[in-house]
Structure formats: C-alpha cells, structure tokens
Amino acid sequence: MDINMFIGIGRADSYKKTAKTKRYVKLSVGEANHMIFLGKSGYGKTTLMRGLVEEIYIAHQMAKVPALIIVLEKKTDHTKSEKIMAIYEEESYNSEKKIIKKYGEWVWEYIESYIKLQNQHKRNLGMMGDFAFGVPNIIGKFYKYDDKNTFLGRQGLQPYVFPTRRFVFRPRRRKEYIGMDNGWHMCKVFEAKIPYSRIPFSLLSSFGSLGEQTLYAQRLKNIWEIEGIKDPDKVIDIALSHEKNPDNPSSTYFRIAETMNRLKNDRLFSKTDTFFCNLSTDAINVIDFSSNSDLTHEEESLIFKFLVIHAIKVASQTRTPIYFVVDEVQNMLTTEHGKWAIDKILREGRSMGINLITATQYMYGLPQSLLMGASHVGIIGRLASHSDWKVLSKLIDDFEDSVEPPDPVSTYTQYEDFKKKMKFKGWFSWDKAYTERIEFRQPQSL
Ligand SMILES: Nc1ncnc2c1ncn2[C@@H]1O[C@H](COP(=O)(O)OP(=O)(O)OP(=O)(O)O)[C@@H](O)[C@H]1O
Ligand SMILES: [Mg+2]
Question: Which domain holds residue 156?
C-alpha cells in the first residue's frame, strides 16, 4: 500500500516553463524512505520539517494506517509568539467580520485566547517550541506570498492544529506553561521518565562513576544485568544480603546503595514508565530537547537511542510505520549513542518501515551514510557551503545543472532579494535521480 505525501509545488512537465503541479512523495507501508534536507540558516528548514510532519500525519490518518511519528525538537523560537502579538495588534484595526473571513472563526478565537494567556502569564510564556503543532499558523495566513496570495493560501491550505504529545525531561518550567505555549488543549505535556527496566548496566556505571573492575561494580552488574533485577530498592536489599555482616556492611555495599539512591532521586528515571507507553499514533509525538528539559547532550542522545530500540520493537511486533524527524541532526552525531541510533535506522530501518527525515545546515563532518542512505535529498533556500555542493554534484547526476552553487552575493540588496525569493523554496532530488525546483509545503501550525 502506498501513501502519498504532498511535498510542495513543482514544475509541470510542460513546454510552458511557468506551469506548476503538486508533487507527492510515495511512502510505501512496510518499507521506508529516508530523506535529508540541507539549507543555510533562516531559509525555513524547520518550517518545512513542520509541514512535512503534518502531511505525514494527515496522509496516514486519511489512509487509516496510523503511524508513529517522533519529532526531536532542539529549540524554542520566541519570535513566533512575538509575531502573533504583532499580527494581533495590526489586525485589531480591521472589523471583526473581515478578520473572521480571513482567518476563520475558531482560528481567531484560538489566537485571542493565546493572547489572553500571554498577557496573564507574561513572565512564564512566550517560548513556543520549533514544533508547536497545537498552534494554528496565522503567520502564514498574514504574510503575503505575492499580490494575490498569502503563503498558505497559495497552496490551498488553512491554519490548523494537530493533537500533540510533548515529552519533557526533568522539566525546567511548569508543564502547564509548556502546554499553553504549544497549543494548550491540543498539546498534552508529559513529564517523561525512563523506567529502570530499560537502563543498561553501562549507564549505571557511568552514573555512579563506578570503575568496571571494582568489586562493587562487579556485584552490581551481577544483580542488575545478570539476575535482571532492575529495581533500586530490591538491589539494595540483595546487596545487603550478600554482606557477611549485615549489621556492619562493607564499603562495597555503601557504594551500591549510593548509586541506587542517586538513581532513585533522579527525576529522569522511575519505576513506572511515563514515556514509551505514552507515545501514540493518534498524535504527533514531540520529544522536547529544548531548554524546557534539563538534559545533558549525552542524555539526549541516549534517549534517542532508547527510542530507536523501542521503535524497532514496535515495528517488528505491529508493522506500524514509524517516522523519526530529526532537525539539526548534527547535534545527534557528536555522541556514540546518537551515532548508533542514526546508523541503526539507516541500516535496518528501510526494511522495517522506520523512516528517517533529517535536516542540517552543513554536510561537513557528518557521515556520508546520511546522504548515501537517503532516497530523496532536498535543498532549502541555498546550500551553506560550496564543498557540500560539490559532494552533492558527485552523488546526484543532474545536480550540477539543476542547483545553483552557493556563490557569494556582492551587494546587500542582492542578499535581501535572494533571501526573499528563496525562503521556503528550493530543490528536491527524487531518488537522487531527478532534481527539480520546488516550493515546499507550508505548515498549517506554528
Ligand atoms: N509565512 C511566513 N512568512 C515569513 N516568516 C515566516 C513564515 N512562516 C514562518 N516564518 C518565520 O521564519 C523564520 C525562519 O524559519 P525557520 O525557523 O524554519 O528557519 P531555519 O532554516 O530552520 O533556521 P535555523 O537554521 O535558524 O533553525 C521563523 O522564525 C518563522 O517564525
Ligand atoms: Mg531551524
């Protein structure tokens, strides 16, 4: 079975150079197509990723083949709520009737309530995530694409909202505020805790800074990994029972107890799972790695690795199509866990129906497998480096003739014109065999 995902407006096969046609990427259920998007900062990479996620969600819902969509979000974007405020103010000079005609009644009500919340909780709000699927995109309905159309209008789209589950780790602000910023009732926020049962001994040993060879590390490894007792309280009891003199336990015991207590006190872990069991195919799952979560870089990639392990299990048991959407993928590729996760999807994902959709500014320093493993390659706005252009020219037959090299512009006006002309637009290389200019699908949410 194939599912068609609208990717944007391409050029029709017509003698008329200006003729346009809607383009769809075929997604085959049970298989996977990896995609990578490259582009210089500010041309709309994240905006495009949001549009694609919406499209994947809609296409799967319509085909009644639910998919597990997992988006790794890296940043919040405070300019979005500032823009909403500015649009709200500017529109308030128009009549209610005119506004409602333009945005639709519920969209405008949504925005009005958003503004109200912003004013009520000024100090705690304004940090909308890069992927706020629960907030309708009034920016794309406000800004003009040309004399006749808005950005959304041109593609026959309306602002819309999507059910979202947002997973925050060791939250840095209240869940209610995170929810309000990302579309309140459309966005369910979970404080995600990883269950002890998923923790491998290797993590514990880094956690308790245990030397692998020491007696306590060996003893803990035995209980945790070999006996499989992954419960801190039980581990402490067992460790005590191993003691010759339980009334006066050895330092080995104390080290084990200390490591277990540290685990128990860490909000990232718990006995019960509030993370994996709440991932849903009826919503878009956003993994909040923005400043809302208090995580180290290492922990973020470890969570990604856990997700990939989970996805493989789900895919092999239920054949559910799975999509990992990783914006700023270079962040994930600086750690061993992250590399493992990406590599695993690239190697095994295709046959299991696990898709990888990534975006980055530069290819430099990233593994070639990311490009080699991708079926389709997209460029947004312009490439950020000449060496990437060369790499792609070698890999894609018609690239050199189709895609403008990222030559420097010589005046400020040229720079501004180019940016305006190319924002949200670029090239799409189908199966790395045919490259065409495309206006990418706009997101309906913010
Ligand atoms: N229709 C629109 N018209 C103008 N600006 C828009 C529109 N839709 C979104 N934007 C704004 O454009 C800005 C840049 O887009 P986006 O964040 O997608 O770029 P990016 O390529 O991901 O940049 P970066 O590399 O900095 O992450 C965003 O702040 C967003 O609010
Ligand atoms: Mg971005």
Answer: 2-192+274-440
Number of domains in the chain: 2
Q: Which positions ≥6 away from 322 have C-beta within 8 Å?
A: 67, 68, 69, 70, 311, 314, 315, 349, 352, 353, 354, 355
**pLDDT tens digits along 357-373:** 999 999 888 889 999 99
Pocket test for ligand 1, best of 139, 143, 327 (most atoms within 8 A of CB): 139
Instruction: Verify whether ligand 1 is closer than 6 Å to residue 114 (CB atom).
Output: no
Residues 335 and 208 reside in one and the same domain = no
Does 47 share its domain with 158? yes
Ligand 1: centre distance to CA 138 (Å): 13
Instruction: Kindly state if the Cβ of 86 falls inside 6 Å of ligand 1.
Output: no
CA 373 to chain centre: 19
**What is the 8-class DSSP label of residue 346?**
I
237 lies in the same domain as 286: no
The finding on whether 82 has its CB within 6 A of some atom of ligand 1 is no
Q: Are residues 303 and 351 in the same domain?
A: yes
Does the residue 446 lie in any domain?
no
In a domain, 445, yes or no: no
The whole-model pTM stands at 0.94
CA of 42 relative to ligand 2 center, distance in Å: 7
pLDDT digits (tens, 9 = 90+) for 120-131: 998 999 999 999
